Amino acid sequence: MDISFSNDPKLYILLPIVYYAWQDAAISNEEYTQITQFIDKQDWLTKAEKEFLSSKINTASPPSRSELFHWKENIDRALTSNSKPKNFTDLGILLANAERISLSDEEIRSIAPKIAQLEQQLGIVSVEILSEYQKRTSITQSHNTKSSFDVSLMTELLNGEQSEIINKVKSIISREDFTPVVDSDTKVFREKVFAWCKILADAGLGSYAYPTACGGKGDMEGYFAIMETLSYQDLSLVIKFGVQFGLWGMSVMFLGTDKHHAKYLAQIGSLELPGCFAMSETHHGSNVKGLQTTATYNHANRTFTINTPQKYDRKEYIGNAAVHGEAATVFAKLVINGIDYGVNAFIVPIRDKQKQTLPGITIEDCGHKMGLNGVDNGIITFSNVVIPYDNMLDKFASVNEKGEFESPIPSDNRRFFTMLGTLVGGRIGIPRSALAAAKVGLTTTIKYSDNRRQFGPDSGQEVPILNYRMHQLRLIPYLAKSYALTFALQYLTKRFINRTEADMQEIEALAAGLKAYTTWNVRNTLQECREATGGKGYLSENRIDDLKNDTEIYTTFEGDNTVLMQLTAKNRLGEYRKEFGEISVGNIFNYVVEQAKTGITEKNPFATRNTDESHLKDANFHLQAFKYRERELVSSAARRFKKLTDDGLEPFDAANIMHPHMIQIADSYLDRVVLEQFLAKLETVNDPTIKDTLTNLYCLFALHKLDEHKAWYLEQGYMEGVKTKAIRKLVSQLCWEIRQDAVPLTEAFDIPENCLGAIATFKAAQA
Amino acid sequence: MDISFSNDPKLYILLPIVYYAWQDAAISNEEYTQITQFIDKQDWLTKAEKEFLSSKINTASPPSRSELFHWKENIDRALTSNSKPKNFTDLGILLANAERISLSDEEIRSIAPKIAQLEQQLGIVSVEILSEYQKRTSITQSHNTKSSFDVSLMTELLNGEQSEIINKVKSIISREDFTPVVDSDTKVFREKVFAWCKILADAGLGSYAYPTACGGKGDMEGYFAIMETLSYQDLSLVIKFGVQFGLWGMSVMFLGTDKHHAKYLAQIGSLELPGCFAMSETHHGSNVKGLQTTATYNHANRTFTINTPQKYDRKEYIGNAAVHGEAATVFAKLVINGIDYGVNAFIVPIRDKQKQTLPGITIEDCGHKMGLNGVDNGIITFSNVVIPYDNMLDKFASVNEKGEFESPIPSDNRRFFTMLGTLVGGRIGIPRSALAAAKVGLTTTIKYSDNRRQFGPDSGQEVPILNYRMHQLRLIPYLAKSYALTFALQYLTKRFINRTEADMQEIEALAAGLKAYTTWNVRNTLQECREATGGKGYLSENRIDDLKNDTEIYTTFEGDNTVLMQLTAKNRLGEYRKEFGEISVGNIFNYVVEQAKTGITEKNPFATRNTDESHLKDANFHLQAFKYRERELVSSAARRFKKLTDDGLEPFDAANIMHPHMIQIADSYLDRVVLEQFLAKLETVNDPTIKDTLTNLYCLFALHKLDEHKAWYLEQGYMEGVKTKAIRKLVSQLCWEIRQDAVPLTEAFDIPENCLGAIATFKAAQA
Q: Are the C-beta atoms of residues A422 and A255 closer than 8 Å to each other?
């Protein structure tokens, strides 16, 4: 009788390895040789048996397809029993026994370890392969969406007091004529956006923030809610809206006086008078203090002459300028009798009602942009354009009857920053708009990921990609951050609206910082959305394209992010120096004791190695750690700057070296503020399911930030490796848990369906 | 006589603070009060003097502009002397002395500390302000571009052996008719790109890699150089070129046999027969093993019937499909007599010469995309399309005369991966193309940053933004990485071309990994370029727009990056298991000794805290650290997987938890390979200036990577905080040094000028 597996059952012990060798694509020719050599060395096999087995592992004459199929049938039969083989050797024995010809226990004891060694040598992970063979189900396959809270309650919480106006805007943008535009011709798109703006103006939304006397509602908070909600639909519209009613209208409102309000605001709010905000120049974008445009006063006829001295002193990137704008608030250095009185603002007509450019004005189109092509950005050059006396926006400075400069603020520097301070609103509107765009991307991506299936065990249904830990780690922390930032930006808005002179500087620093912090976060969120949706994320119909390209400039708008972060950090460092100055004058002893206590309570080995889940989830731990980072970064910056300049470096050079450090200061401050506002919001929640869900999101936010900054904490000795590893593990675990609520958490954003990407409603055929 | 500063010179001591209070925008009302209170408490002032000083610090009656001007004149006069005041107190004394009425030393000794305290309380950084007042120059202002090497020699080094073909391609793309397109209508753009392809085909570039018998040059290395060089110009062109001559042509070349080569290759190479590569399906993108399209064999007439069973089994994102393709290589499951023989490839005609879609074929347009709109991606659905027997690409499988399946590779799995393995070229072409795009972005951005000036001391010229440390840190490490990746991808190309069966798996893992590693790096590079160029970076004329949006899909092309990184890591883990298996079989003792030695030499306190610059710049230190990370990540993964499954987790769940760990494995492996190839390239350099420059870039690359992974090294105890901080400092220092060579280093890429953004040639008016 010929030798065969069924005739000679002990040979079955090697069948799993032989089958694997042919089935797995990762085994190399070298390894076939290894198996053959192994067979050759086995003293429990006869020469004939060895020859038979070797013939089954010969790459020159591979087994037929049906033979492979037959082997697999044998394996499957052996695996239906209750026994659970741990490796290929166990499986081989099971196969041999299935043929009812058992080997003696002694024989098995002698053979088994040898085969186990071979498995190891071949790098076979048999536990994995056996799981596949047995079609065992995994939690990765069965994990799914299960809402644990009332979505509409969550929406209420997110909307806060602005539900009414938010819903009004949503009812407009969900209309069919507001469906987002894909791949439109620039000219057509610009007119579409203008028409949308007109509809919004007619609905009374343009003048919402203006005084009631000028046709508005005097509701600045509502204005920001409008900007934010419009951002679900189209960002060109938001920016056009913001340029017209925010920048242009509010520069008149805040920098002008009654005469300007009476003359312009109603017309601006109704879009009868489209206008621009002409600040940036080609050579001076971030550095607005360096603007070169001049406004020369002529006392003889009480006029100002607006002029662009050099080519690159022209106003650039000016929204509404290329097509629709009829006037502009122009920032220019006021010159009286040859003396420069610093930058002031003037209303300059640029086009007539027939949209003809006025004499002395040259306007070029900025041309095609990466995004926001529904906004007509232009370049304006002034060639000695004469405007009447009343066109100076004279709230902070004016020219008196005698032709002399007058201002309640003597320093040009100070006046300039006070003027700019009134325009801080842009630094609130932009991050709120950005965050809304991120929410559209996240909702689209998370809903798709819940339905899209890819990969899985060889036998069995493919797995929703949202069940993959890596996919969760890419998206769910951004979901938590979106919630965190929603609360932080609402807080900023309220503080801005209720500002007093005393806290204005702090609010400006916070707005500058949160603008940078949020827009960078949105940039990262949408990047992950793009990649997480693969090829679908590249199709314009899914909107990630436009959301990403439109918000791309938000990191530059209203000030380059790195410059703004420096500004925030400078404020923090200044505050620290004052505080420290006062302390060193006052009770230095208490301060030292306070600092030392931190050392004792936070840096003792128990704390630095504490990995209890209850500790890691404790808000006090988070707050202490966030504050420690903030305090330490700012105090070390003060010391470092002193050391560098004491060592003889010029302060400008020292500051240059410290730029990255300064950005860390701003970042740590913003982290802390955002954390605190999340906690403050949690305090207001009564519904227990909402509270639990939000608490999980909060924890993820806090721990993800600690994980992000773990290098710093490790460098400081504030945490040890064992703790940072525990945090990383907990972040992954929280993502896994929150995944079940991820879809409802995006549904709570309540974004009109026509504003989502097409794949948000994708249904997998296999689902 | 009235009290005034000039009448009562000791009051001058307080003038610097008074002047600062009005000049600086950061001082608050509260602080005016603080100053007033301070004045009130001074016993060296009379009541009248106190009243006078208080009147000068009263926000209700600020000093006039001319008074402020006059104070500043006084300060400037005092500062022209050689004395160097250290703070406002010193300056005040100087002012007092300038009026020639000195105070007694004793008086000064008593007054000075009090004022110094006030300065501290107000948080005034007088060293900074005094530097501004004195208009001292800084190295930040004077740093500039200074080439220290021969640019053309560097270009030669970068081009390697491919100079000739690279220059040929450059001579074509620098022609005026190849000027990159901005904002073109999609239809027009697609035709433009097709016309460009035709010009390239006519120049013999399309068939470059094909056998000479089919009109080619048999030069695969040249083909990759062509792809890379074309990427400077337009990425739609590159992808269209790659689809036609790479994917379509090479699927015929590698999966077909002589009969296919003879019939198709010449026509493909000349673009007479435009075609597609139809692999991805809507429901199966990354998971190509799950493809559902069927090719059913009919022995009666020896034909195959190609069919799309369910709607979402259609072929999606297929390049060349929407408009130009006349045929396609279609991947489908071969079914013979109801038995599924796995995925195979077939040539299917889809359009006639008049571009009419053939019967049974339905083609939809994918529509507008985020980028690459010059490529006509489409969706193909097959409704029982019958193709002749000869259309099966039968290199790896065929149907014999008897209608039976035949293949030299019995396992479907194995055959499928062998087939895919021949198509690995795409994973080389894509990263090389991406890197070229990044170089266009970097060149444009760095040249602009060298000329663009923004901010600076109040008095004095603004500073080139490339002199800012933060700006350097954003760009210069990417410059180093671009050099590093150039060498690594050339190495990969050579290994791919000279591959043998034995190293094929390793090369596939390397290609998959380097594709992901490079395209992610390019994504980050172009993101920084966009932000670093501010508003300019948003204008399409500067090309960062298109470069970024076109390469955006490169992270998904040829396999999603996270999936590819898993693939690479699996290979590394498999290799490790085999090695470890062999070791544990063989001499486990030696292995343990080897591991322990690492502990002794690398983890001793001297090594973990060593911050000597010579040590930090030592290639041996870098190599050891890179290898340690690679080895430790892979061995801990093996242990962790065992522990998780031993604890009862299903292997699929354990693998899921370990995805992030796996990505780290791939990353550490790729870091090490890239580092080694940079070092290998350095070995070949003879010119000392080139060598020095490249060594600096190499060091920056190595240290920047160590800085990036410092959290991991700190967690492991491989480095202590003092060392990671020293590395960070050295990274910043290297960026500062390399900045002088940054422009020439981009010039060495030798990118045709018409391919750069318009701002690359921007000249600052102030320069």
A: yes
* Distance separating the N- and C-terminal Cα atoms of chain B: 52
Task: State the Cα angle at A544 between A538 and A546, rounded to 5°.
Answer: 100
Residue B588, min C-alpha distance to chain A (Å): 13
Nearest to A115 by CA among A218, A185, A172, A34: A34
The C-alpha of A538 sits at a distance from chain B's nearest C-alpha, in angstroms, of: 5
Cα–Cα dist A344/A330, whole Å = 8
List, as one string, the DSSP characters of B524-536.
HHHHHHHHHTGGG
Residue with tokens 């470096």: A649
Pick the more confident residue, B504 or A694.
Answer: A694
Distance (Å) of CA B507 to CA A711, B497, B559, B572: 34, 10, 16, 12
Q: How does B137-168 read in b/e, with b if 16+ C-beta sit within 10 Å? A: ebebbebebebebebeebeebbbbebeebbeb
- Residue appearing with tokens 């040979």: A11
Q: Is the Cβ–Cβ distance between A395 and A291 less than 8 Å? A: no
Angle subtended by helix axes B47-55 and B29-41, to nearest 10: 170
Q: Give the residue from B232, B234, B231, B229 showing the smallest Cα distance to B182.
A: B234
User: Is A577 within 8 Å of B31 (Cβ atoms)?
Assistant: no
| pTM, 2 dp | 0.95
Give the least confident one: A581-585, B160-164, B532-536: A581-585
pLDDT at B767: 37
Structure tokens that stand for B743 in this block: 């422009």
Q: How far apart are CA B16 and CA B36, in angstroms?
A: 15
Q: Is the ipTM of this complex over 0.90?
A: yes
Measure Cα distances from A255 to A208, A210, A264 in Å.
18, 13, 13
Among candidates A30, A548, A650 on the partner chain, residue whose Cβ is nearest the Cβ of B138: A650
Tell me what the pLDDT averaged over chain A comes to. 92
What is the separation of C-alpha B14 from the centre of its chain, rounded to a whole number of angstroms? Answer: 54
Write out chain A residues lying below 8 Å of B28, CB-based. 501-502, 505
Instruction: Assign A233 to helix, strand or coil.
Output: coil
Quickly state the pLDDT bin for A579 (edges 50, 70, 90): confident
DSSP alpha helices (H): ranges in B135-217? Answer: 139-142, 151-159, 163-173, 186-202
Binary contact (B711, A724; C-beta < 8 A): yes
Q: What confidence category does residue A594 fall into, taking pLDDT thresholds of 50, 70 and 90?
A: low
